Amino acid sequence: MSFDLSTRALVSEFEVKLTEPDSGVYITTDDGEYVSITIYGTASKQYRAATAALKLKNSRKAKLTPDDERKATIEMLASLSKSSKNLVVDGAEIKTEEDFAKLYGDDRFAWVVTQVTEALTDQTNFLKKA
Prior knowledge:
This protein has a single domain, classed as 2-Layer Sandwich (rbstp2171), CATH 3.30.2220. The protein is an alpha+beta fold and about 130 residues long. It has four helices and five strands. The strands form two sheets. It has a three-stranded antiparallel sheet. Strands 4-5 form a two-stranded antiparallel sheet.
C-alpha cells in the first residue's frame, strides 16, 4: 500500500495565537476570544515574494548593519502578516502592513516579534490539518 504525501502538504497560512510573554498563557479578550495574527508561511506566494525582495535588497548593500538587519526583519514580518484578530495597540486596531511594521518595530512588543518569528520558522504549524 502506498502513502499519499499530499496528506502532509503545507498550507499557506497559520494563525499565531499570542501568549503572555511571562506565563505562556493565551491572551484573550474579556469575551474569551483569542488575540492572534495570521501569517503567510513558506508555501505561500507572499513568502516567496518577501524572501526575493529581501535577497535583492541585501545584495545591493556591501555590509548590513545591525539596524539594517532589524529593519529588514520588521519589513519581512510585516509583509507576511495577513491579518489580526482582537489586536489593538494604543487604541488602534492592527490591520495593515504599515500597522504591523509599527507593531514589530516597537521595542515594547519585541516578544510579539519573537512569537511570530518562531511560528513562521516551525513548518509543522503549516501542515495541512486532517
